[in-house]
Amino acid sequence: MLQDEKNHSVIASDRVDGTAVYGSDKDKIGSVDKLLIDKRGGNVTDVIISAGGFLGIGDEKHSIPWSKLDYDTDLDGYRIDVTKEQLMDAPRFAGNEPDRAYDREYQSSVYNYWTVTPYWLAAAYQ
Length: 126
Known about the structure:
Helix content: 10-25%
Number of helices: 4
Strand content: 25-35%
Radius of gyration: 14 Å
Order of helices and strands: HEEEEEEHEHH
Oligomer: single chain
Shape: globular
């Protein structure tokens, strides 16, 4: 990361991809695979975390509402208030089914699991 970037509150999406994600115990539980952005509102709605597997083979993908992650400057990565075991109990999909992240039924199960108001409903109330 460029030194000047560390002094700003925004970051380029290509710098987020691959960033480590840590659990509440500060153990690495995965890494950011990609961000999902609401086309109309322009906000990041979800982060896809890649967990498990080896060199991208056999990994599981977890869609997590962006609001559940916090950036931890000490870890130089994102933190979520769960352990790896708890993440593995969350809704997930295989690396070979990337369109699953966009499926509204899957997204509903994700937001329900994480007890977060879905972005498509929250936008209706703004």
